[in-house]
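Teaching note: in complex prediction, the entire set of molecules is handled at once rather than each chain in isolation. The prompt given to students was simply: 'Predict the structure of this complex.' The entities are:
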Amino acid sequence: AQKVTQAQTEISVVEKEDVTLDCVYETRDTTYYLFWYKQPPSGELVFLIRRNSFDEQNEISGRYSWNFQKSTSSFNFTITASQVVDSAVYFCALSEAQVGGANSKLTFGKGITLSVRP
Amino acid sequence: DSGVTQTPKHLITATGQRVTLRCSPRSGDLSVYWYQQSLDQGLQFLIQYYNGEERAKGNILERFSAQQFPDLHSELNLSSLELGDSALYFCASSANRGEGSYNEQFFGPGTRLTVL
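The expected output is the structure of the full assembly:
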């Protein structure tokens, strides 16, 4: 069975601080996909990144960076120089390899509420 | 805008009632997923349809059912509603690019259901 653990529930930082959101996952599959989604106060779920299990390269996109380490089953998300607009709930999610041409479901962590104060 | 539409945006109803939530996937997407976000359970997968057929089931109650129509839109039916069914219900869709590739799930804006 798949499981995603986001041990941090709430994080509060002051603008311009760096913040790292932790994600630990469990799966028996050798091929799987990891994701981060953002849910701003308006409620929609915004896709941020997908990572394949066979690609451990870290990724940077502007102020966002992701550190994927299979050895520790972690997929952590760092926001550099945080801004008030980064305030949201962030979800880490896991999906198994697709079956018969259709994607598998997403298993989400409980989410981390990030508050960035001016 | 993800391209996935959900109606209605808000729904307020009473216990014991039945409601239908509607989802239109992105153009050409064959897969539709339903997720429930509640304070107690977090974000959890309910059910998946692929090209009109049920593909996978999650923690979906027997009082809930879904279907995907030939035009690929989907409906989630919730009956004998209880207070605990109050939640945000998301629909997501994904394309089909064939074996060996992963297709992102794009989420609709959600339907907020309040059961009084």
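Point out the following to students. The longest strand of chain A covers residues 88-96. Chain A is about 0% helix and 50% strand.
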